[in-house]
Amino acid sequence: MNWYEKIGHQLFEPNRDQSPGELIFFKIFELFVLIYTIKYAWEWGIYTELRNTEVVLPLGIANYIDISIFFDWNLALINAAVITLLSVIAFARMGLNWFYMAVMVLLHIQYVARFSQGEIPHSMNLIGMSVLCFAIGSIWFPDKKQMPRFVIGSTIFFIGLGYTSAFFAKLIGTGINWFDGRHLWLWISEKSIDVYSTIGYYEPNFLQELALNHLPVASLILLIGWLTELIGFTMWWKKIRPYTTMMLIGMHVGITLTMNIRFDAFVMQLILIGFPWYLLIDRFVKSTPKWIEKMV
Amino acid sequence: MTENESKRGMKVLGVTLLIMALLVAPHEGEFWPFSIYPMFSQAGNPWTRAMVLDVTGYDTEEIWQQRTNEDFIGDPIAVREYGVDEIDFANYVSKTENWTDNRREALRIMFGLQNFEENKWLVVKAHGHLAGKDSVAVDIIPWILLTKDGTELNPNINAAEYMKGGDR
């Protein structure tokens, strides 16, 4: 067995039997992704329709087409409606195999239309990657014995890869001194202006005060967060996964406390995907409900 | 899932990774949902954000004076209460290079013209940078005043800075 087959074993667990708990958990995860997909589609669509007037920063496919056409004629809202319809049908397994892929493409368009205003947020990326994994899974692994394993395994793969990638982006972008606490001071002060602008007032919390008053503390906070990103890929190994996940969740709590940046969907997804919830479900459920079996 | 399907799964992931590399490489690391997650990768750089201050009641001389984040005047306006995303607003202010009449008027329209019947709101740029070895300085630069009659530019700033960018 070569190295990538070993990783495949950790991600897809080919020798493990499928259990009711696994199928129930899979549908819970899919429901979570569905809810966020619909939520984002409408939030982005409504904002695009109401607020966007010109493209400040073209992202993705907006580099090649004039995405500003989605600012008028209710196109962003129509797109949100189509995304909703297709994703609900795909969730119920009543449509064609490529419905999730169509949702992926339309959601990409919705994202680049909404975020054409200069900022590139990342808090929605994991939901996007999950939709992509459902899209690939439903086309190439449509069987109910294959799809849950592929979707969950590949989602874990991309989550781990993303965190480790973020570590190297910082190493390349700044160098080994990235964790200099003064960098955190700059970010705290930058986010303080955003907080003023968002809610009208700002008070530094205890951790921010501590970091602003003690440079070594600020440096330590950055170093711990940075090293946590580095080990993101260890999520690929199932025995280490819960521990890596807990560290990543801790890192996100730290980011929220120090920089006022919330990654709600990220953290919820980590909680769902980082722990073997199917074992808990299997304790209470001995057979898969028929309606779930039909929709896997 | 069988052993063979697991191997096939890894091959599919490999192809997806290749597609990801081809998409993000020419697009500065971003092709949603693919990303190399470059946020915060360039540390230590100065930054510019923006906010709106309610300066109703302040006189002209006070309004146009440059201050810091510790002594600025006026109450910050919570832009979200007006349906405006604070990040989009900051980008609009910090990245606009040519402050044409339309761009300036768009700020008033953004918050609703009725708000300026009795109020004067000041759009400020906040510019943060490392000052020396052990502190961060945040300059609050008065940029555009929004009133019931329209918009006013800061008379203390060279008009050229409002067109074709400038240093601030």
Please report the total strand number of chain A as a whole number.
0
Largest sheet of chain B: 6 strands, antiparallel
Task: Let me know the average pLDDT of chain A.
Answer: 94
The gross shape of chain A turns out to be: globular
- Principal-axis shape of chain B equals elongated
Distance between the termini of chain B: 58 Å
Largest sheet data of chain A = none
Individual helix count of chain A: 13
**Unreliable parts of chain A:** none
- Rg measurement of chain B, Å: 22 Å
Element string of chain A (H = helix, E = strand): HHHHHHHHHHHHH
Mean pLDDT of chain B: 90
Helix content of chain B: 25-40%
Q: From the alpha-carbon coordinates, what is the Rg of chain A to the nearest angstrom?
A: 21 Å
Task: Walk me through the structure.
The complex is a heterodimer of chains A (296) and B (168). Chain A has 296 residues and is an all-alpha fold. Chain A has a domain at 22-140. Helices cover 69% and strands 0% of the residues of chain A. Chain B is elongated and about 75 Å long. Chain B has 168 residues and is an alpha+beta fold. Chain B contains four helices and eight strands. In chain B, the strands form two sheets. In chain B, strands 3, 4, 5, 6, 7 and 8 form a six-stranded antiparallel beta sheet that branches. In chain B, strands 1-2 form a two-stranded antiparallel sheet. At the A-B interface, α1, α2, α4, α5 and α6 of A face α1, β1, β2, β3 and β5 of B.
Task: Summarize the entry for a quick read.
The complex is a heterodimer of chains A (296) and B (168). With 296 residues, chain A is an all-alpha fold.
Q: Characteristics of this structure?
A:
heterodimer; A: 296 residues; B: 168 residues; alpha+beta; 6-stranded antiparallel sheet; two-stranded antiparallel ribbon; 26% strand
SSE order and pairing:
The complex is a heterodimer of chains A (296) and B (168).
Chain A: H1 3-12, H2 20-51, H3 75-91, H4 99-114, H5 125-140, H6 147-173, H7 181-199, H8 206-213, H9 215-230, H10 241-259, H11 264-273, H12 277-284, H13 290-294
Helix pairs in contact in A: 1-6, 2-3, 2-4, 2-5, 2-12, 3-4, 4-5, 5-6, 6-9, 7-9, 8-9, 9-10
Chain B: H1 3-24, E1 30-31, E2 34-35, E3 47-54, H2 60-63, E4 67-68, E5 75-76, H3 86-95, H4 101-111, E6 121-131, E7 135-147, E8 150-153
Antiparallel strand pairs in B: 1-2, 3-5, 3-6, 4-7, 6-7, 7-8
